[in-house]
Design brief:
The chain is of the alpha+beta class. Among the domains are: 219 residues, putative glycoside hydrolase family protein from bacillus halodurans (Beta-galactosidase, Chain A, domain 5, Distorted Sandwich); 77 residues, Sandwich (Immunoglobulin-like), CATH 2.60.40.1180. It is built from 18 helices and 31 strands.
Length: 749
């Protein structure tokens, strides 16, 4: 085992990740991005197609603006009275769209830049140099090979390409604004003027004006340089088309003056910094290792600081149709899953765009809480919104799913747990958690037996039917317990709100932890509603993960409850699961130390929900595993990120405050290692497994927290070395006080 976790070995990055060719669909393409500007490189024959988009490219018109009648009290009364007409009128039909405007905001397709090579060139190979953030494509004919290299510059919205066409003339550059019937019909119906092309010798492109938005310009500049062709592409906004064109011209001339080589070198340095900070894994299963490194590559291209927060497709929106579900923010699992790998992989900085976005919405979140709950100090986040927090509408159960607020707040609480950053806790996590629980307090009833949540939903179960609700939904109960416990702890750290802690403790102590059957042996979705069919949303098990509110360890009060509930999940099966369900289920089993099932679910995800171009799909790529197989071309990004997090969970995770090392490693993995993995308490952890056993653990304490380590050798004695001293301790959990900067080496005694 390495004793220096700065020497992280990313052996996976030493080789190019090969793509099968030809690539006949947009989402089979090689992905590049700097978080804001994204590209997918794909094609066949002598055509290379480059689909481009920006993560902030929206039509903001439409959406819902709930009337004053959209209150919790009215909701409860209408549900209890069965008044479906009034319920739907207020919670589903309150559109704020003007006549002739779209019903809701949406991300927009942008278009393509195509390269057509002369002669009989055709694709022969392509791949990603993940270590340097570079896409590589090779084409060939009878006389030679044409090579193409492409990067997106991290600091500017510039796609740079270098093409060596083996002595042939430079490829023809074709400009392709959106031209599909679906996209053109949307543009025509909702008042978009036709795109306007321009051609100024080597500088070409088009402008797309948008009603109520800045003009968008795609610019392309190309020229010969030292026998090769260099091509630079951008997408920029400005108040007028002329200003947008001039802005694009200026940026591309600057990029061309810098040159491809210099831009690629700077991009490679950025990626080196990313991978130097990233937890390194060495696994015997190459497919599982692929899921981790591909997920971390896409995390870097999805949400680095300064970029928009993660949406359903990030910067990789297809050009040939309007994006599914408007490509928006879904806060009932999808956004959260995107950030799951940020913690253990050691990339907490990727949460900065989300924190900035939520903070920019605070006035709206206050107003939503005021209207719904009648409080001035609450926060309420609808489950589906655009980047201005406009509610997308759709179905009433999603509109009133307050778990979306709590789950988003937990992302920031986890940031504090993994970093120890008190300022982040004070400015981001604590206010959102407190505002979320404030709304729940209005929704709760106090009875002789304790607290009760009389009206609640479990995400997506029952759709928007009038029976899609019940009392004490297990998901909402777990969210409330998570908030109450976190607020008690956080208020003590911050030294504030002592008068509120007793109320929070009372809620935590007298609110059921889950809805169960009469014997307390199976978690129900809500009172009287078992998991009666295959269901893609595992939210009733949120007390296991992500909220970690149940005590199900050996001898724990919920041990049998959790074991039986996971068996019941297996009994109902995967018949209606989608891509993002698989990593979540893998983590649920990893939290029960079931490495075999955790690995199997990830392997099934890899085979069924990842296409030829390693893009994660919403529906299965083939029938048989699930009936959700009719739309395999829908790409959603969160499953790829969730899978990376699930790999980390197999190797190490913290539950109930105790760090477990190699908790869910399959028996077949006789050897495995990781280094630089971040754990709760702000620890960086290295560990190695040989011949089926952990041989040692190295822990660096960044904040001086107490390390509670589950003994990797059961109850056996262990040797702990630090500061030139050695102590021998034993027991199932090792409590090890630390100071900031201290390094501990733990071995079997």
């Amino acid at each position: 085992m390495s004793t220096n976790n700065t020497q992280r070995k990313h052996s996976f990055l030493s080789r190019r990740l090969e793509w099968p060719v030809p690539l006949t669909m947009t989402h089979e393409g090689l992905p590049l991005s700097n978080g804001t500007f994204g590209a997918l490189l794909w094609g066949e024959g002598n055509h290379l197609r480059i689909t481009i988009n920006r993560a902030d490219y929206w039509d903001h018109r439409g959406g819902m603006d709930f009337p004053e009648e959209a209150t919790y009290a009215n909701l409860r009364a209408w549900l209890e009275a069965g008044d479906e007409a009034r319920l739907r009128e207020v919670f589903e039909k309150a559109s704020r769209g003007a006549p002739g405007a779209p019903p809701r905001p949406t991300r927009l397709p942008m278009g393509r830049i195509d390269l057509r090579f002369a002669g009989n060139f055709c694709f022969v190979s392509g791949g990603l140099d993940i270590a340097h953030g570079r896409a590589e494509v090779e084409l060939a004919d009878h006389s030679g090979v044409a090579k193409l290299r492409a990067i997106i510059f991290p600091a500017e919205q510039v796609l740079a390409l270098w093409v060596d066409a083996a002595g042939y003339e430079a490829p023809e550059v074709l400009l392709v604004p959106p031209d599909s019937d679906e996209v053109l019909e949307y543009f025509h119906r909702y008042g978009f003027p036709e795109s306007r092309r321009f051609d100024e010798d080597s500088f070409r492109g088009w402008v797309q004006e948008r009603p109520g938005e800045p003009a968008m310009c795609v610019g392309c500049l190309s020229w010969r340089s030292g026998g090769a062709t260099e091509i630079f592409v951008t997408s920029l906004y400005a108040p007028t088309p002329e200003q947008a064109i001039e802005k694009a011209r200026s940026l591309l001339k600057s990029a061309a003056a810098t040159g491809y080589d210099s831009l690629a070198a700077a991009t490679a340095r950025w990626w080196k910094g990313w991978w130097d900070r990233t937890a390194a894994l060495s696994l015997p299963d190459q497919d599982i290792e692929l899921l981790y490194y591909l997920g971390l590559y896409k995390l870097a291209g999805l949400t680095p600081p300064g970029s928009p927060a993660a949406t359903l497709q990030g910067p990789w929106i297809e050009e040939y149709r309007m994006p599914p579900w408007q490509g928006d923010y879904h806060f009932n699992v999808n956004v959260q899953e995107c950030y799951w790998p940020a913690y253990a992989s050691n990339h907490l900085e990727t949460l900065e765009p989300l924190a900035a976005l939520i903070n920019s919405w605070r006035l709206k979140l206050r107003e939503y809480a005021r209207r719904f709950a009648g409080v001035e100090d609450g926060f309420l986040l609808p489950h589906a919104v655009d980047d201005r927090c406009t509610c997308m509408g759709g179905f009433w159960t999603g509109s009133i799913d307050h778990g979306s607020t709590a789950w988003t707040a937990q992302l920031f609480w986890l940031h504090y747990l993994y970093s120890g950053d008190v300022e982040f806790l004070r400015e981001n996590a604590y206010p959102l958690m407190k505002g979320a629980l404030r709304v729940y307090e209005v929704m709760l009833d106090e009875t002789e037996d304790g607290w009760r949540l009389p009206v609640s939903v479990s995400p997506e179960f029952g759709g928007s039917g009038m029976d899609a609700w019940g009392a004490n939904a297990s998901y909402q109960l777990a969210a409330i317990h998570m908030l109450a416990r976190a607020l008690i702890r956080a208020s003590e750290v911050l030294g504030i709100d002592a008068e509120d802690r007793e109320r929070w403790r009372d809620i935590d102590e007298r609110l059921p932890e889950a809805a169960t059957d009469s014997d307390g042996l199976q978690i129900y979705l809500w009172e009287g509603q078992p998991l009666s069919e295959s269901h893609r949303h595992h939210s009733h098990l949120a007390g296991i993960y992500p909220f970690d509110t149940l005590d199900y360890g050996p001898g724990g009060p919920q041990e049998a409850l959790v074991r039986n509930s996971l068996r019941h999940l297996t009994d109902k099966g995967m018949g209606r699961w989608t891509g993002w369900c698989m990593p979540w289920a893998s983590i649920l089993f990893a939290r029960q130390d079931n490495g075999g099932m955790a690995e199997l679910l990830l392997a099934a995800y890899r085979r069924a929900f990842m296409n030829r171009g390693y893009a994660s799909s919403h529906d299965s790529q083939f029938p048989g595993l699930t009936v959700m197989d009719g739309r395999p071309t829908i790409m959603q990004i969160e499953a790829c990120l969730g899978a990376a997090a699930a790999v980390l969970e197999m190797l190490a995770h913290t539950r109930a405050g105790v760090l477990h090392v190699f908790p869910a490693v399959p028996d077949a993995w006789s050897e495995a290692a990781f280094s630089g993995l971040r754990a709760e308490g702000a620890f960086l952890v290295d560990a190695e497994r040989r011949d089926g056993c952990c041989i040692g653990v190295r822990v660096e304490s960044l904040q001086g927290a107490l390390l509670r380590l589950a003994n990797p050798w059961g109850r056996a004695a262990v040797r702990v070395e630090s500061d030139g001293k050695t102590q021998v301790i034993e027991g199932p959990v090792l409590d090890l006080p630390t100071r900031a900067g201290q390094i501990l080496l733990v071995h079997p005694a």
